[in-house]
Amino acid sequence: MNNLQFHKALITEVIQESPTVRRFILTYEQPIHFKAGQFVILKFEGLNHQFDTRSYSIAGQIDANSLELCVVFKADGAATPLLFEQTIGDTLLASLPEGRFVLPEEPIEKNLFFICTGTGVAPFRCMIRELLVERKHALPIHLFFGCRKKEDILYKTEFEKLAKTFPNFNYHPVLSRDQWDGLTGYVHPHYLKVLETTKDGLFYLCGWTEMLKQTRDNIKNLGYTRQDIKVEFYD
Ligand SMILES: Cc1cc2nc3c(=O)[nH]c(=O)nc-3n(C[C@H](O)[C@H](O)[C@H](O)COP(=O)(O)OP(=O)(O)OC[C@H]3O[C@@H](n4cnc5c(N)ncnc54)[C@H](O)[C@@H]3O)c2cc1C
Questions:
Q1: 48-76 per-position pLDDT tens digit
Q2: Ligand 1 atom 10: the closest Cα is on which residue?
Q3: For residues 141 and 150, is the Cβ–Cβ distance under 8 A?
Q4: Whose CA is nearest to atom 40 of ligand 1?
Q5: Is residue 234 lining ligand 1, measured as CB closer than 6 Å?
Q6: Which of 55, 57, 116, 177 could form an S-S bond across to 123 if both were Cys, CB 3.0 to 4.6 Å?
Q7: Which one of 1, 4, 34, 55 would you pick to mutate in the ligand 1 pocket, going by the greatest count of ligand atoms within 8 A of its CB?
Q8: What's the CATH number of domain 111-233, 3.30.565.10, 3.40.50.80, 3.40.30.10, 2.170.150.20?
């Protein structure tokens, strides 16, 4: 991380997306170019200098100079309590976009599966928009989003609207600790059910290790290979 360059980024908006998650809009002094799926690294002055950076997926582009991050508060964490003290008008130190967890550049002739929990949905917000709106991807796209309760569902209205507009986009929020008329429990049985009748999948998994490892194993057990499964671990 020592060679990484950090740039001033002004916090221009903060949105409380759920009880524990905030969306931070960062405005750089220069235009920012990124590929859907990439992340930026924030540097936190005041933390032990060897471990004073944290990565955050880009959840959206607001205008040429502005990016959106979607961050969950970790009460016992070192960096997120500092980040959540920051508000509109404060300045952060942020890298330019990094990372290879991106879509293939060539047309994708496969069913796409995006599987995540919590803020792991952040890079998928950009990827799914790009596929549907810009690339006009016509094959099925499935988003399985796991969280605990109704109020934890991130970007719900937006994904519902996309699903209405694009019939090939299948949005599956799954709640593990709430009753509702949608899917419940963990995400695993739900994507496995769709996979019973689907061939030719390309999988993107994002979030915290435990859920991702189990998901990767489940998909591999169906005969898919490493090339079919792209993973971004948050821890
Ligand atoms: C590519 C990527 C993208 C991510 N995107 C998002 C996102 O969009 N939204 C989101 O909410 N989170 C995201 N994360 C997780 C985020 O980077 C932080 O880990 C999270 O915010 C918790 O930080 P914390 O300092 O509050 O918690 P902490 O538990 O204090 O730290 C979290 C991590 O920092 C490292 N760390 C801290 N201290 C030490 C130490 N002393 N020695 C070694 N390692 C240490 C460890 O890897 C630890 O797991 C992403 C992570 C990665 C790798």
A1: 888 999 999 999 999 999 999 999 999 99
A2: 71
A3: no
A4: 51
A5: yes
A6: 57
A7: 55
A8: 3.40.50.80
Domain locations in the chain? 7-94, 111-233
Buried b (16+ CB within 10 A) or exposed e, 76-114: eeebbebbbeeeeeeebbbbbbebebbbeeeeeebbbbb
Homologous superfamily in CATH for domain 7-94 = Translation factors (2.40.30.10)
Q: Residue 66: what pLDDT? A: 98
How far, in Å, is the centroid of ligand 1 from the Cα of 80? Answer: 9
Spacing, Cα 46 to ligand 1 middle (Å): 16
pLDDT digits (tens, 9 = 90+) for 120-139: 999 999 999 999 999 999 99
71 in contact with ligand 1, CB cutoff 6 A: yes
pTM (2 decimals)?
Answer: 0.96
**Helix or strand or coil: residue 47?**
strand
The token pair at 103 is: 């879509």
